[in-house]
Amino acid sequence: MSSSTQPLTWLITGASSGIGLAICIAALAAGHKVAGATRDVAKASAANPDFAARGGIWVTIDPGHADSAAAFAAADRELGGVDVLVNNAGYWYIAGVEDISEPLLRQQMEVNFFGPVRGGNSFTGRASQGAYDASKWASEAMHEVLSREIGGEIGSKLGIKVLIVEPGGFRTTFTSRGIVDLLNEAYKGTELDKAITLVSNFDEDGLDKYFRGDTAKAARAIIDAIVDGHDGYLRLVLGPDCLAAMEQKIAELQRDIDATREAALSTNLDGA
């Protein structure tokens, strides 16, 4: 979205807990109009009475349902136009590739991938047609494509910008709502077994080692980046653990480039 010192209208999915709720509270504190999207307004209201007391508005949207595009559009009309859409809703499903349950995978993709697509299409449809944002690699890839499609002059005309938030481990209830599938016996004792065992044994009250992030600080960083226009970068990296992981990934990609450079430069047509 375009940078502005004026109050903005925010629509935040997955707003009833975790980073989504923290963004809601931070945006309200900064003087913005905020709508929190949730599957169950009554439950969200009861669990977070301060949200409405501070001026927040709950709206019913389930990103995992095929009809959520209509719900996004209805929320846009109700709010008088949305300036900032935060595609935050999602959950994790963990299984070895060989053991993935297709129904569970499809449901996760409905929430983590198609939910953001429907939300994005509901708003960009006012100005243009085409694919918008597009579990999380797929969504990030589509957001990156969108940032290029609407970059420069087009983005300026539409008043739309994309920011991809890359959070590390933050202290929320996220781990308690995931799905861990059964492990194939052939993978006992492998790295996959260790990873699934680790996730299965997460204790919400004892995550100091893996989840050190403060959601309130993350929310403030996100608000600041959006209001300031986040010029010069697409990804907002949050957390020392995420920074280290991204630096490791960059190093791995550079290793692959260095190892395959000769092959890469040898595949053009002769004389081309």
Automatic annotation (TrEMBL):
Protein name according to UniProt: Uu.00g083860.m01.CDS01
Gene3D superfamilies, per database record: NAD(P)-binding Rossmann-like Domain
Superkingdom of origin: Eukaryota
Regions crossing the membrane: 12-30
InterPro entries linked: NAD(P)-bd_dom_sf, SDR_fam, SDR_oxidoreductase
Pfam families assigned: adh_short (PF00106)
UniProt keywords, alphabetically: Membrane, Transmembrane, Transmembrane helix
SUPFAM superfamilies membership: NAD(P)-binding Rossmann-fold domains
